[in-house]
From TrEMBL:
One of its GO terms (biological process) is peptide transport. One of its GO terms (cellular component) is plasma membrane. InterPro entries: BP-dependent_transpt_permease (IPR050366), MetI-like (IPR000515), MetI-like_sf (IPR035906), OppC_N (IPR025966). The keyword Cell cycle does not apply. It is found in: Cell membrane. It is a multi-pass membrane protein. Keywords: Cell membrane, Membrane, Peptide transport, Protein transport, Transmembrane, Transmembrane helix, Transport. PANTHER family: D,D-DIPEPTIDE TRANSPORT SYSTEM PERMEASE PROTEIN DDPC-RELATED (PTHR43386:SF1), OLIGOPEPTIDE TRANSPORT SYSTEM PERMEASE PROTEIN APPC (PTHR43386). This is ABC transporter permease. It comes from Paenirhodobacter huangdaonensis. The chain crosses the membrane at residues 25-47, 95-118, 208-237, 257-279. Gene3D superfamilies: MetI-like.
Length: 295
């Protein structure tokens, strides 16, 4: 038995891509993501210096950071390192953590949400009460506690962020799965003797794909901001590995004398988060016709 719904029709790749490319804000977001991703991938060839190199001429005679100029396009930091090079390599950190942490959070949230929504009963009650318990803790505070327990590194930070970001996905997936489990086509499949695996993988999960794509895109924005916050607080990615958050943390004492050391990485964080928000919002309108209306 097959079922064709508006959500499936909207999720057809060719139609969804065409509608997405018709949205100007989505195109701006995609352009920003492409630029940042390209900069991160090709950083070893684009960056004029290694991110950890401390230049002999990277500081003024007074020992202050160099302002933007011909040699150092975005200036240098308090140790004489080229800021442009560190921004490029820092983009790698943000994107890797954004994709890995958000992917893990989606996997955990989807698994818990689908299990609780389909089986319900005591299984659903236990899983959702645990989800509610996790949601009761402030995400930043919980992330700081977890990061303090483990030795901070890129992969540990990604794991910590995933462990605090899955709850929203689980709640949304649970609600949608519970509604789908009551639909007529699912009841008909059960009557025909279909097993749990067939119902989940052939009928329920395909309906969840558009929503998971949207939450995955929007979640990268949240992950980038949380990683930058943890790094700024000193419990995220540790120097000398460049991260946009720890670049601000290291150079905040020069905020008045060398404001570019704070404004430039801060603008990069906001631009990347905004880009994923714009694309995620457009994907939501494209993949879910019931929420259209914001162009």
């Amino acid at each position: 038995m097959t079922d064709v719904t508006s959500a499936e029709a909207a999720a057809r790749p060719q139609g969804a891509l065409r509608r997405l490319l018709q949205r100007k804000l989505a195109l701006i977001g995609l352009a920003l993501i492409v630029v940042v991703t390209a900069g991160a991938i090709f950083a070893p060839w684009i960056a004029p210096f290694a991110p950890e190199d401390q230049m002999f001429d990277g500081l003024t005679l007074e020992g202050a950071p160099m302002p933007p100029g011909d040699k150092f396009w975005l200036g240098t930091d308090l140790l004489g390192r080229d800021l442009f090079s560190r921004i490029l390599f820092g983009a790698r950190t943000s994107l890797v953590i954004g994709v890995v942490a958000n992917g893990l959070a989606l996997l955990i949230g989807t698994l818990i949400g689908v299990t609780a929504g389909y089986f319900r009963g005591w299984i659903g009650t236990v899983l959702m009460r645990f989800t509610d318990l996790m949601m009761a803790f402030p995400a930043l505070l919980l992330a700081i506690c977890l990061a303090a327990i483990f030795t901070p590194s890129l992969w540990i930070v990604a794991m910590v962020i995933a462990l605090v970001n899955w709850v929203q996905t689980a709640r949304v997936v649970y609600t949608e799965t519970s509604a789908l489990a009551e639909r007529e086509f699912v009841a008909a499949e059960r009557t025909l003797g279909a097993g749990t695996g067939r119902i989940l993988f052939r009928h329920i999960l395909p309906h969840l794909v558009p929503m998971i794509i949207v939450w995955g895109t929007l979640g990268i924005s949240t992950t980038v901001l949380l990683e930058a916050t943890l790094s700024y607080l000193g419990v995220g990615v540790q120097p000398p590995t460049p991260s946009w958050g720890n670049i601000i943390f290291e150079n905040q004492t020069y905020f008045q004398a060398a404001p570019w050391l704070v404004f430039i990485p801060g603008a990069a964080i906001l631009a990347l988060a905004l880009a994923f928000n714009l694309v995620g919002d457009a994907l939501r309108d494209v993949l879910d016709p019931t929420q259209r209306g914001r162009d």
